[in-house]
Amino acid sequence: MAGNGNNKQYDLEERTYEFARDVRAFIKKLPRTLANIEDARQVINSSGSVGANYIEANEALSRKDFLMRIKICRKEAKESRLWLRLLYTGEKKDADTVRGALIQEAVELTSIFGAIVRKAGG
């Protein structure tokens, strides 16, 4: 996972891709409850949106467009954290550990995008 250990990815495009990929791998291992199906759909969308909007921010036509996309990245990372917290793991310790790492990555991405917004004056 991108957020584990001392080998952090500082390439945000790659890091956001890995976050979305890792969320999808995690979802495949969860119990198939009605709530999980709905919450999984939400977290898949929000985690992928973080990376998609970051790519769009890097292709922004204006500073205003850049800031808007980065703010969306921050919002989607926060949303991903909520959906991850709601998912039922079946109380499996390994699944809880993976979820905790994904939640931590969502928190870190939220902080990174918040810092970018502040530095860009938005």
Average pLDDT score: 92
**How many H/I helical runs?**
4
Number of strands: 0
CATH superfamily heading: 23S rRNA-intervening sequence
* Overall tally of domains: 1
Helix percentage: over 70%
Indicate the radius of gyration in whole angstroms: 15 Å
Known CATH architecture: Up-down Bundle
Low-confidence region ranges: 1-9
General shape: elongated
Quote the CATH topology: de novo design (two linked rop proteins)
Structural class: mainly alpha
Classified by CATH, the class is Mainly Alpha
In short:
With 122 residues, the chain is mainly alpha-helical. Helix content is 75%, strand content 0%. α1 (12-27) runs antiparallel to α4 (93-119).
Set out the fold topology:
Blueprint: H1 12-27, H2 34-58, H3 63-86, H4 93-119
Helix pairs in contact: 1-2, 1-4, 2-3, 3-4
Overview of the molecule:
With 122 residues, the chain is mainly alpha-helical. The chain has one domain: de novo design (two linked rop proteins) (Up-down Bundle), CATH 1.20.1440.60. 75% of the residues lie in helices and 0% in strands. The protein contains 4 helices and no strands. Helix 1 runs antiparallel to helix 2 and helix 2 packs antiparallel against helix 3. The longest helix is centred in the last third of the chain and has 27 residues. It is elongated. The N and C termini lie far apart (30 Å). The N terminus is likely disordered.
